[in-house]
Design a protein that fits this description.
By secondary structure, the protein is of the alpha/beta class. Helices cover 15% and strands 26% of the residues. It has a domain at 2-87: 2-Layer Sandwich (Beta Polymerase, domain 2). It has helices at 9-18, 71-82; strands at 2-3, 22-30, 34-43, 46-55, 60-62, 85-87. The longest helix has 12 residues, at 71-82.
Length: 143
C-alpha cells in the first residue's frame, strides 16, 4: 500500500497508465473525521494500491478520468454516496448517478435516528362462543 497526498493523485495515475497498468477499482471508507480512498491498479497480475485521506468536511478530489476514462463511474459514485466533490470528471452525472432515499448515505459517520412507526396495531381476531368444527368422515361405499 502506497500512501499518497491528494495533490499527487493525478501524476501517480499518469505513471500507472504510462507503465501499462489498468484501473481495477476505487473504494471509499467513511471514518469519523476523514474519508479513506484506495485506488487499485493491475499490470500482469501485479496489484498496486495507493491510499489517500480526505477531510470529511468539504472533501474534494481531482478526477483521474483523463488517464483512466472508466474512472468516471467510480468518481460519480464517490460524489453521490460520500459527498466528495470530484473536479474534472470526464462524464459528470451531477448527483444523478444513483437515486438513493438518503442524499449522500455515506457522507456522515453519524448513525441515523430510527423513525417512529406510524402503522396501526394489528386487529385482534373476534371472539366467538361456538364449538370448534369437527372433521366429518365420508360414509362407507356400498358394495
Amino acid at each position: 500500500m502506497e500512501p499518497i497526498e491528494v495533490g499527487a493523485l493525478v501524476e501517480r495515475a499518469k505513471r500507472f497508465r504510462k507503465d501499462g497498468y489498468r484501473l481495477v477499482q476505487i473504494s471509499a471508507t467513511r471514518l469519523p473525521e476523514q474519508v479513506q480512498l484506495t485506488y487499485s491498479f493491475d499490470w500482469e497480475s501485479h496489484l498496486a494500491n495507493v491510499r489517500l485521506y480526505l477531510p470529511a468536511a468539504e472533501a474534494k478530489l481531482p478526477s483521474i478520468s483523463g488517464e483512466f476514462w472508466c474512472a468516471f463511474l467510480y468518481e460519480n459514485e464517490l460524489h453521490d454516496l460520500f459527498n466528495i466533490a470530484v473536479e474534472g470528471i470526464a462524464v459528470d452525472f451531477h448527483g444523478k448517478f444513483y437515486n438513493t432515499a438518503v442524499k449522500f448515505p455515506f457522507g456522515t459517520s453519524k448513525v441515523p435516528s430510527p423513525k417512529p412507526t406510524t402503522s396501526p396495531a394489528p386487529a385482534s381476531a373476534p371472539k366467538t362462543n361456538s364449538a370448534p368444527a369437527t372433521e366429518s368422515k365420508p360414509a362407507p361405499a356400498a358394495s
